Every structure is written in C-alpha cells, then in structure tokens.
Amino acid sequence: MVNDHLVIRWTAAETARAIERGAVTCEQVTRACLARIDEREPKVQAWQHLDPEQAVAAARALDRGAPRGPLFGVPFGAKDIIDSADMPTEYGTPIHAGHRPAKDAACIALSRKAGALLLGKTVTTEFANIHPGKTRNPLDPARTPGGSSSGSAAAVADFMVPLAIGTQTTGSVTRPSSFCGVFGYRPTYGDMRTAGVMEASGSLDTLGIMARSIEDIALYRDVLVGVRPEPVAADLPALHVGFCRPYYWSRLAASTQNLLEEGARRIARGGMQVTDFALDEEFRGLEQAHKLISGFEMARNLTWELEHHASRISDQLRYGRLKDGLECSYKTYSEMRALCERLRAKLHRVMEPYDVVLAPAGDEAPVGMDPVPHPWVYMAWTIGYVPTVTLPVFKGPSGMPVGVQVLARRYDDRRLFAAARRIYELLK
Amino acid sequence: MVNDHLVIRWTAAETARAIERGAVTCEQVTRACLARIDEREPKVQAWQHLDPEQAVAAARALDRGAPRGPLFGVPFGAKDIIDSADMPTEYGTPIHAGHRPAKDAACIALSRKAGALLLGKTVTTEFANIHPGKTRNPLDPARTPGGSSSGSAAAVADFMVPLAIGTQTTGSVTRPSSFCGVFGYRPTYGDMRTAGVMEASGSLDTLGIMARSIEDIALYRDVLVGVRPEPVAADLPALHVGFCRPYYWSRLAASTQNLLEEGARRIARGGMQVTDFALDEEFRGLEQAHKLISGFEMARNLTWELEHHASRISDQLRYGRLKDGLECSYKTYSEMRALCERLRAKLHRVMEPYDVVLAPAGDEAPVGMDPVPHPWVYMAWTIGYVPTVTLPVFKGPSGMPVGVQVLARRYDDRRLFAAARRIYELLK
Questions:
Q1: CB B193 to CB A112 under 8 A?
Q2: pLDDT in tens, A188-203
Q3: For the whole prediction, is pTM greater than 0.90?
Q4: CB < 8 Å from B in window 365-404 of A
Q5: Which of B40, B56, B59, B260 lies closest to B157, judged by CA?
Q6: Interchain contact, B113 vs A195, CB within 8 Å
Q7: Which of B203, B301, B330 sits opposite A225 (nearest CB)?
Q8: Domains of chain B (ranges plus CATH)?
Q9: Which end of chain A has fewer beta carbons closer than 10 Å to its terminal beta carbon, N or C?
Q10: Tell me, what's the ipTM?
Q11: pLDDT tens readout for residues A56-78
C-alpha cells in the first residue's frame, strides 16, 4: 500500500501510470486527495463544492469499470464557473447558490472521457471577476492566492489535486499560478471549446490549466483540445528566446526585474540565444481597451442578474466594472476592439523572430485579499491570443513564489511545451 | 378595437407605437399573434414551445406595469438553442427534451429589459446543424423554410410574431430569411453576446435577427447589442456599391443570376455608383475550412451528448459532421483557422473600396426538407465576420422569395442599415 503522502505529490501522469500498473486504485488516490483536503481545507478554502462520499463512489465506479483514457483515475478540480451535471455550479455568486446544470461543460466531459475524476468545484471570484472568493494563498494565508481562478491554483499548489481547470480573461490563470507556485497554461485563443463555461467577457475568455509539471500541462491540453495526446518533444533545435521587457517593466518590483534578468542570463548560459526586445508604449492603450471591452461585454452577459438580482451583486462589480460597461458606447467599444486587433497584429510581428518569449508573470502575491493585482502584466498577451506557460521558478523577497511566463506564437503550443520544459530545467 | 388581421401585420416599431398611444394593449397584441398561430401552426410548425396561457399572463403583467423600453409589448420568438428561464430549451434534440435553464440567455434578458415579450421558442434543426426540424416553408409546405433558424424565419414570415432571434454559423439566418421572404440580419462578428446560447461551432457562431422591416432590424440590433437605439440614418451621401459575383456564381440558378444582375442595374439607375468585383477562386478553400472547423468544434462541444446519448443523435450528424470532426487533427484544424484568417483579411481588402456590397443570398427554397442547401453561398461572409442584411426583394421561377445580401465592413452595421433601406426602396 502506497502511502498518502507520496500519492498526493504525484503528477497526473505519475498517478495514471501507478493506477495502470496496479500500484494503487482509483479509490486510494481519491481517498489520499480527500485526506489532504480534510487536513488543509480549513486554512486554504480552495473548494466551493466537495462531497467526499460522491467522490469515493465515483472512484469505486472507475475501479469497477474498464480502464480508459490517458487520465484514468486522476482527480481534478474545475473552477466553479464551469458547468457540471452532478455537482452544483454557482459562478461565485449567491444568486446562483445550489444551481444544478443539466449537463457537463465540454471541458469536463472531455476530462471524464479521458478517465479523469471530477473531485469537486474550485472557488472562483464573483463571476470570475474582481470580487474575491474565500480562498487563501496556501503558502501564506495572509496573502491572496490570485484570481480569478483562485481555488484551482491553490488546490494544485497544496497537493489536493494534481490538475485543475481555470479560465482567463485577463490574467486569471497566469496570475494565481504564479502566486501559488504551480505551472499554469493558457492555450492559443480559441483552441479549447468554452461550451458550458460562463461567458465572462466573451471575446477574451479562454480555458486554462494548472498542474505540477509541464508533462501534465501538455497531456491535459491534448485532452481538453480533444486530440490524441503526444509526448512533449525531447529533441529541440537550438532555441532563440526573446526576453521581453514590456512598457510596464518599471512598474514591477525591482526584485522581480532582477529575478527575470538573472533568469535570462542563466538561459543564455544554458546555450540558448537570448535577445532583448520591448513592447513599446503603444501597448499601454490596451489597458483602457481591456477595461472597456470586458466591462461592456460582462455588463450585457449579466443582464439577467442585473434585472432580477442587482442587489446581490457586489458593489465593487456593480458600481465599478458593470456601470462603466453599461455607460460605454458602441462607438468606443468597437474602436477599442479595432485597436486590440491592430496591436494583436503588432504583437505577432514583434514576437515573430523568436521561438519563444520570456516575460514577467507579475510580482509575488501581495498581502491582503485583492485577487487581481497588476492586471496590466497579462493584458497584451491575453489580447494577443498567444499561448503562455507560467513556470514556478523564482522566490520573491518574502519567500513567496514568482513565476515567469514563456510564450509562443499562436498554434505553436506543442513547441511551447518543449521549450518551457527546457527553460524550466535551466531555471528551477 | 383594432382588428387582429391588422395587428399581426404591424412591424415591431408599429406595434410598440400603437401600444404606447393606447390604440391596443399588450394583451390584444399577444392574442392576435396567438390567434394567427392557432390558425396557421398546423401547416407551418414554427414553434417548439408555445403556451398561450403563459403568453397571455405575461402580456397582462406588462399591461399592469409601467411601460418600459423601445419594444414594450412586442412579442418575439427565440430559436430553441437560446436559454429561457420560464420555458423549456431543447436544442433541437430529444436528448434535452423538457430541459429548463435556470436563467435567460443575455439576448432574451436584453429583449425583456427593452419591454419585449417572449412568446415562445422557435424550431431549430438538431443542435442548429444539418438534421431538419418539423417546420415547413409557410409559402409552400412542400419546401424547406431553410435552416438552421427555421422556425424563427417561418414565424416572422407568416405574421406570427414581428421579431425573432436566430443564430448563424454558416448561413442559418441569411438562408431561411431569404427562403421565407423576410429581412434577416447577422451582425458584425462578436457584437452580440452569446452567453446562454448553445455553442455550435464556437469560433463562427453569431446571433441574428429576423424581422419585416429594416427599421425593426436596426431597433432590435441596438437592443441586443445593449446600446441606446438610434434611428436609421436618412441622409446618406452617394453610395458606392460593390456588386459581387463570387467564385461560386456559376453554381447559382440562372434565374438567380439574372435577378441579381437586374437588381444591380436598377440600383445604378437609382443613382448609386455600382462596381463589379469578384471573390476569386482562392475563397473556395473556405468550403473545406468551414466544414473541418465547424466539425472539429461541434464534435468537442457535444462530448457530453456523445458520451451519454450517442444513439439519440441523428445518424446524419453523428456519422457525418461529428465523425469528420473527431477525425480531424489539430494540425489540420489550426491550418484551416490560419487560412480563414488570411482570407478574412483578403475579404476586408476587396470590400474596402465600397460603402456596401451586394451579393447573392442563394436560390429559391428547393422542394424537400434539406434545411441547408448551398452552404457555400454564405461561408466567405460568415468567416469574414462582416455584417449582412438580407432583403426580401425578388421572386424565383416558382414564385418563391429570393433575397439579396447587402454587406458592409465590420463595425459599420448602422451605415449598412441606412444603405440597405435605400437599396430596398429601389428593388422592392
């Protein structure tokens, strides 16, 4: 009998292999995760819904059936804006308390088709926006885990599950992954279907993955795109890495700047060609564009809630982003979309010379529960539709994790994984 | 007391004005629509869900309350892939028979906020795809109404409601509008939120509107975008119209070609500058791209149904588009998306010289119930993200309606309405 302490530290791939060779059952894995949650949840509060009996029953059902799929028996969490047929989905708001969707979102159905076990639903900020949920940073309960996919990052970081699904409209996967010290991935825009996932902004939303290894990210990515899994390529040609100091570089903590610069030097010493480049001041326009576009879209998406339950929306959201969005004209909204399109093309041009790009993932998690600090770190890449992996490689001055983003051109996610793994080996 | 025969022929704007000046109550309008449906529904079968008592109760509630919004008391239908909190939503499949969403889709909530009354849910093809629903063409029951928004177009054409919402992934608003002889509109891609609307393909889906006047299209468009309604501009500068004979021109019926060419001559005689242009053979590549992209995406969106209810999916869909989609590799899928992006930019370049573009909307509705004939007519415009209005101006050799598309550059929907109204006056 393998001990729980070991089981919960396995990656998803290791877990699936252990189940396949009979070293452990699905039930044992699930019970190990549940025991960890039982111990740690009072402090971390990563879960919005978790029913241990239901989870054990699901694991036993897997053990009774024929093994199937590359994630057979692997427990995962899903952000609670993602519909699940057998668990409530509450979108981070009391308005939808106890809501039971009729079917699984595409990403949950694809996970289950691959044999994975939905352990529970992880905490999201209110409507995946700015008002925090209850989750704490597992490495320091006085600090935010980052949002909006707070519970997904915290649960993976705290060894409660090896995998979790999040979503990103600004930096909602990258930020909490960096703050909690896990691998985070946002795919090429449009690659993963969002059917059954609450539309936050709509034109900027993507799914994302939190995990504890690049291999797990790559494997789960293939599952969620719905294609045959392929191993991460081992034999890469010499990589040309663009080291990006974006226009907001001086707004980052000096310690973060130093960590990134030292990281770039280490990568160069590791044999990669590293070239500095910038995102110039023009990209600053995306901050206003993102605010207006996401506000405009979210205010319309939440029409039903505003008409029927306005008083149960947080003041922060209702009188902030939603009010701004409702007041934004179509002319401004469409001009902002056109601006995004122009700068997206420019981003693709400036990234073109590089196989991958190294860029900040933000400072360490601040003290307090603001779930969405430094949103400007993430906007250009999110609006640019390019895939990104956050690597948990640095520690900030308070000993908290500081991640680094590795980005690639659109549709080049598989090369991104191979490059990110090599860079991780150099920086870890 | 105004008589029902008159009431059902009013446009939405006329209906709202009549209610506002007290010429008629919301209840009288709703009862007139219900009487028309009672008479005609056995032949047309436009409705998937319609509860007359519920509709009358909703109308009475409006009459009791304070008038509100530009569509106060106007009945509308919504395609049954659009979630409604107080009516079933079944997505055109027995798998979801009786399904009750917890909240309204954004577009229904926005309609109700504007005072409109959801009369019922209109018939869709299975999952808004290729397998027909029960609806007949109201002008000839031996012919298809066109799909996938079959019931929406038929209900508006047959004077059952003045407005209906549809959706388009290929030509699912334009085609049935043309086949049934109503005004149809698909907005600039991304302008209307699809929260609460079943994701068909995802990357190509948009909402659309069916109505019986350009004014209604414009008014309802502003309501569904969620902005203050503005009247259709009356004073347009001289228009430069591009008359497009796309690469598939020779596949259209000779009669359709003649109608369009005569239309272009009439527009020129009406004082507009008309210039011929083509979509060259390169655009033919979009036919394969559309098939693979929509198949790839839909097959993943329907994972839950495929895993749990595969035998209740039509063979046509299951062994056709879904099978093709499941077999499509990511490499092919992403190449097809890149191709679409390149040709989208090319489409924008070739449309650039013109204020609006005149293009085919397809041949007249064929005999039989194939809901999706000549999909290649619509693909370039749909993939191109440009707004389109279909005008019901021609009759084909069988006396069935033949529409013409007027298209504009992205974000130029308001100019499109003004131009389409002027062109309609010249061609009607």
A1: no
A2: 999 999 999 999 998 9
A3: yes
A4: none
A5: B40
A6: no
A7: B330
A8: 4-225 (3.90.1300.10)
A9: N
A10: 0.97
A11: 999 999 999 999 999 999 999 99
